[in-house]
């Protein structure tokens, strides 16, 4: 599948010497939903802002649908819709006026039917004549989405789009995202709700300390790192694990009433049968058991916590 966004050797160093991005290279495939995950301050918003032409890179190249974002800014930007984290709209304008204005900024001819379709999909049609300043926070977020879609972009960035919004908007938004993807729109999202990425994304990228830690197909990632847990509810609590069991990937939980066994889903032998035999030899009885697949959130936390500090030195020359 061809790349619609190509990032090569991208760096961002601010005037004070802080390196926000360190040698980022990334291809985003046409028509996919790509989830970019990372802790606060990891560089997610900086990366998105550079691709969207809001922040200047220090070095490196980026193309959007074949257009260089610096040399061919207008063409590149016309391909992109952005829903930023911050709500930034003219509060005195009506919903309809601000969405139409956003479309006109990109030189698109009027298309009342398309604007109406967007507003209806986002449950904004009844508010089309309302001033934005009179809307709730959730409704303002819907307006930001409508603005981003007004010029019919082929690439849509959603930067923490569901932060602080109600369940109804979250559901509506993901329904719309699925519909956009079916029409061929490429969607890049950042989110603190990792279960959303696990449900929606085709591929996962993890960024930490300004560096890309991993980019992988979601299913492959879950298969590779998606360890399972077997939780045994014990008949009697254990103060400590018997010495003979300490070589196993076991831990105690729930004040000794739970025995947790970790095993690799990709391994030919899980070791469960041998574990049960050992438990029987030591007279450890259990009354219930459950298995649990390691979630994307578990994988994300382990990847971020395992990453060593960035080894790149800060540059002394900075370009704006």
From TrEMBL:
Gene3D superfamilies: P-loop containing nucleotide triphosphate hydrolases. Pfam families: ABC_tran. InterPro entries: AAA+_ATPase, ABC_transporter-like_ATP-bd, ABC_transporter-like_CS, ABC_transporter_ATP-binding, P-loop_NTPase. Keywords: ATP-binding, Nucleotide-binding, Transport. SMART domains: AAA. Residues 5-234 form the ABC transporter domain. The keyword Transport applies. The keyword Transferase does not apply. GO terms for molecular function: ATP binding; ATP hydrolysis activity. It comes from Zhongshania antarctica. CDD domains: ABC_DR_subfamily_A. This is ABC-2 type transport system ATP-binding protein.
């Amino acid at each position: 599948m061809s790349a619609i966004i190509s990032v090569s050797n991208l760096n961002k160093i601010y005037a004070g010497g802080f390196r926000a991005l360190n040698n980022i290279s990334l291809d985003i495939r046409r028509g996919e939903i790509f989830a970019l995950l990372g802790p606060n301050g990891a560089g997610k918003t900086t990366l998105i802002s550079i691709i969207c032409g809001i922040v200047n890179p220090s070095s490196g190249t980026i193309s959007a649908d074949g257009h260089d974002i610096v040399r061919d800014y207008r063409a590149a930007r016309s391909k992109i819709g952005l829903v930023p984290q911050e709500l930034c709209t003219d509060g005195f304008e009506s919903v309809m006026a601000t969405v139409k204005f956003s479309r006109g900024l990109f030189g698109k001819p009027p298309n009342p039917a398309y604007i109406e379709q967007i507003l209806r999909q986002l449950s904004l049609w009844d508010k089309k004549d309302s001033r934005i300043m009179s809307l709730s926070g959730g409704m303002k977020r819907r307006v930001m989405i409508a603005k981003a879609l007004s010029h019919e972009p082929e690439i849509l960035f959603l930067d923490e789009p569901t932060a602080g919004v109600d369940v109804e908007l979250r559901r509506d938004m993901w329904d719309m995202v699925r519909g956009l993807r079916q029409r061929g729109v490429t969607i890049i999202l950042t989110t603190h709700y990792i279960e959303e990425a696990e449900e929606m994304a085709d591929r996962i990228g993890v960024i930490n300390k300004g560096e890309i830690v991993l980019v992988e197909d979601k299913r492959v990632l879950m298969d590779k790192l998606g360890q399972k847990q077997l939780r045994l509810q014990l008949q009697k609590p254990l103060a400590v694990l018997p010495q003979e069991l300490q070589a196993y990937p076991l831990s105690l939980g729930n004040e000794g009433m739970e025995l947790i066994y970790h095993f690799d889903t990709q391994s030919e032998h899980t070791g469960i049968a041998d574990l049960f035999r050992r438990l029987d030899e030591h007279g450890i009885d259990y009354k219930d058991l459950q298995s649990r697949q390691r979630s994307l959130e578990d994988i994300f936390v382990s990847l971020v916590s395992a990453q060593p500090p960035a080894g790149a030195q800060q540059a002394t020359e900075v370009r704006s």
